[in-house]
Q: What sequence folds into this?
């Protein structure tokens, strides 16, 4: 199974890992259950978001580590420990809150990059897309219903 860097890049850009379409979030924190364009289901198995939690923990600790090392390096030997402590606490509170939606889309990209949809999931995505198209009456410019890959908008 080959790694798909494109899926990861699309995930990092908060786009669908399968088709690259944006708008996969209803609001800042609420992800659509399926891609509005291609129909891929985002929560593919129980515990799906454990991976997103791992991503956000790693990113938060990376940001904190850079902050701490830079603070030590720039102020040595008179290190402002209280400032570093307060800054570290703020980083460890705000980073997960602000970056969690991004970590969800990154995890979707990582998961799809390493574990592409199987035949049943592909059929489910196509059926979800057809159902969405039928409900909205969406057609392409040539008068046909939009295909499973959808737009890249």
A:
């Amino acid at each position: 199974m080959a790694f798909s860097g494109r899926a990861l890049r699309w995930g990092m850009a908060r786009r669908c890992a399968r088709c690259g379409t944006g708008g996969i979030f209803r609001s800042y924190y609420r992800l659509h259950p399926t891609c509005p364009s291609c129909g891929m289901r985002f929560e593919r198995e129980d515990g799906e978001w454990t991976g997103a939690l791992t991503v956000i923990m790693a990113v938060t600790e990376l940001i904190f580590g850079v902050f701490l090392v830079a603070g030590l390096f720039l102020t040595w030997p008179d290190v402002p420990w209280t400032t570093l402590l307060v800054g570290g606490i703020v980083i460890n509170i705000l980073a997960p809150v602000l970056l969690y939606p991004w970590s969800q889309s990154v995890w979707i990209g990582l998961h799809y990059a390493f574990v592409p949809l199987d035949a049943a999931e592909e059929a489910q995505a196509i059926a979800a897309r057809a159902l969405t198209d039928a409900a909205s009456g969406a057609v392409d410019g040539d008068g046909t219903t939009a295909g499973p890959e959808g737009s890249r908008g």
Remarks:
- The radius of gyration is 20 Å.
